[in-house]
């Protein structure tokens, strides 16, 4: 498979007052990053969250999360299974949060597929499922990452 070259632009961001944070984001006192991922002449933008002690995000971390979330969506997991599998089934608040997260990763995977194109997306996702971290390491090596502070 011919690897596409990515470029990632990273900006540290601030939370909006009305932004709804997940439990782990609250507990970890999460840091928010604005990410723009370029592939050829197309891009997608999204928020990326880390624990407060992370001072700089790397291409591997960003690409790993995108492929991992896409693999969850590609598995065909339904909402109920997602909520149970990821621990969003204890309280009403958990359910609401889980539904929000589930819908967000579906939308993110859709945007990622549009960015990569159907054929490359399917092939790359298969490579990720078969090789995990090794595949992400491989594509991260050629990824340009630009940090704006």
List keywords for this structure.
149 residues, single chain, alpha+beta, globular
How would you describe this structure to a colleague?
- The chain has about 150 residues and is α+β, with helices and mostly antiparallel strands.
- It is about 50% helix and about 20% strand.
- The chain is built from six helices and four strands; from the N terminus they run βαββαααααβ.
- It has a four-stranded mixed sheet with strand order 3-2-1-4.
- The longest helix is centred in the C-terminal third of the chain and has 25 residues, at about 90-115.
- Secondary-structure element order, N to C: EHEEHHHHHE
Mean pLDDT: 91
Strand content: 15-25%
Helix proportion: 40-55%
Summarize the main sheet. 4 strands, mixed
Topology:
Elements: E1 6-13, H1 23-27, E2 31-39, E3 42-50, H2 59-74, H3 79-85, H4 92-116, H5 118-131, H6 133-141, E4 144-148
Parallel strand pairs: 1-4
Antiparallel strand pairs: 1-2, 2-3
């Amino acid at each position: 498979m011919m690897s596409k070259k990515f470029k990632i632009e990273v900006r540290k961001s601030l939370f909006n007052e009305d932004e709804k944070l997940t439990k782990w984001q609250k507990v970890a006192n999460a840091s928010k990053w604005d990410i723009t991922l370029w592939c050829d002449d197309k891009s997608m933008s999204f928020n990326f969250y880390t624990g407060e002690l992370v001072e700089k995000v790397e291409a591997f971390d960003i690409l790993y999360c995108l492929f991992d979330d896409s693999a969850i969506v590609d598995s065909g997991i339904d909402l109920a299974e997602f909520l149970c599998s990821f621990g969003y089934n204890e309280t009403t608040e958990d359910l609401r949060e889980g539904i929000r997260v589930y819908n967000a990763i579906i939308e993110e995977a859709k945007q990622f597929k549009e960015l990569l194109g159907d054929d490359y997306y399917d092939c790359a996702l298969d490579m990720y499922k078969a090789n995990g971290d090794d595949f992400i390491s491989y594509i991260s090596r050629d990824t340009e990452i630009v940090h704006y502070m």
